[in-house]
Design brief:
Order of helices and strands: EEEEEEEEEEEEEEEEEEEEEEEEEEEEEE
CATH superfamily: YVTN repeat-like/Quinoprotein amine dehydrogenase
Strand order of the largest sheet: 1-30-29-28
């Protein structure tokens, strides 16, 4: 679809009143969010209020004209949402703002010198939308050039806020830095097949993981590249498994990385993905973890009970239009040997991402459900109580 301007103004009527809160037991459903082909989420706090922004890739509408009139079809011109989440003896969720997006694929929150920004990458637009908080809502602030936006992440180098954006059209990653209230282009990294980016800082050095799953030259054998930052320039350092997404975390002084693997080298559905630990200057394989088909994203997080968890988002099989899956949550303990055991299996539909956040002394886990077999992109995403 042709990309058009993406104002931050609400294009739709105000959302209905929030659902009554209920205190959820551990690992029970705590809330549901009305999403539209959810592709990514990011939690953030402004003035002690918890928010969650959801980047929506598409919604399913009935066609108004033509030979398919009346039939359901995806529309990537939709709206993405910002939800306020309160702890009132349970979760109270309310959609407080929407903004127009075109195949939104990633979202990141940035804070600098008291200002708050949201960066939204879009596959069907030629820009990344930068929205800025005006004290009561987010307004469009800047557009960054982008060709087929994929995953996006925010990180800090020497006190400067930065963005990394996967660009399908350019077959790589673009880096931007925030200076005097504006983002400026810093560097482009060649990374064919990259669809997701994440960063970590180890031994005072920043690393960027460009998760890649398929390229025109190496097909499903495409490796994910880890870039290291030296003298403010990123350069390739070593490779990891191919994957749709990755997650990193430092826990009890040890550094972990998980790559969510979608396909095997022969193109068949993959049902095992690698967990790595940083050893001797690079990520070394610890073990491969079982999951349902279509692993698209993951979230390593430490909960308020001081335990380490890994949630793996399983999308299912898009080719067969089969999306209902069990997305596993693993508990990882260090004693000092690494012991990994499956803690829960969460029912998801077209799951592509997980995020965790703490509120009211409890940890919650939210999934981005992209679609299901009957409703297309018009499915709800779910928040579970972890602790």
């Amino acid at each position: 679809p042709e990309a058009r301007p993406a104002p931050a103004k609400d294009p739709a009527p105000p959302a209905p009143a929030p659902r009554p809160a209920h205190r959820a037991e551990r690992w029970a459903e705590a809330a549901r969010l009305k999403t539209r082909g959810a592709a990514a989420l990011t939690p953030f706090v402004i003035d002690n209020v918890q928010y969650l922004c959801v980047a929506n890739f598409f919604e399913t509408l009935k066609t108004a004209a033509g030979p398919t009139k009346g039939e359901a079809a995806p529309s990537t011109e939709t709206t993405s949402s910002i939800w306020r989440i309160e702890d009132d003896d349970g979760l109270l969720v309310e959609e407080v703002q929407t903004f127009r997006s075109f195949g939104a694929h990633g979202v990141a929150h940035i804070t600098s010198e008291g200002s708050h920004y949201l960066a939204v990458s879009m596959y069907y637009a030629d820009f990344v939308a930068i929205l800025k908080w005006d004290g009561s809502r987010f307004e469009e602030h800047q557009r960054l050039p982008c060709e087929g936006g994929g995953g996006i992440c925010a990180f800090v180098v020497d006190g400067q806020q930065r963005l990394a954006v996967a660009e399908f059209g350019k077959k790589g990653v673009s880096l931007f830095g925030l200076e005097q209230d504006k983002f400026h282009h810093l560097q482009y990294l060649q990374a064919d097949g990259c669809c997701h980016v994440s960063t970590t800082c180890l031994n005072k050095r920043t690393y960027l993981i460009a998760a890649a799953n398929w390229s025109s030259t190496t097909k499903w054998r495409t490796a994910s590249t880890v870039f290291s930052l030296t003298r403010d320039v990123f350069a390739p350092s070593f490779d990891l498994s191919s994957g749709e997404g990755s997650s990193t975390l430092t826990y009890q002084g040890r550094h972990f990385c998980f790559v969510a693997k979608h396909k095997n080298p022969d193109g068949s559905c993959c049902r095992r993905s690698p967990l790595y630990e940083w050893r001797r200057g690079k990520y070394q394989l610890v073990q491969e973890l079982d999951h349902d088909d279509g692993a698209h994203g993951a979230c390593l997080f430490e909960a308020t009970n001081s335990k380490l968890y890994l949630a793996i988002a399983c999308c299912g099989d898009r080719e067969k239009k089969s999306y209902s899956r069990n997305s596993p949550v693993y508990e990882i303990s260090l004693d000092p040997e690494i012991v990994v055991r499956r803690k829960k299996s969460l029912p998801t539909t077209g799951a592509v991402a997980f995020v965790a956040f703490d509120l009211g002394g409890r940890t919650y886990l939210a999934v981005a459900n992209e679609q299901d077999e009957q409703r297309g992109g018009n499915v709800e995403s779910v928040v579970w109580a972890v602790t």
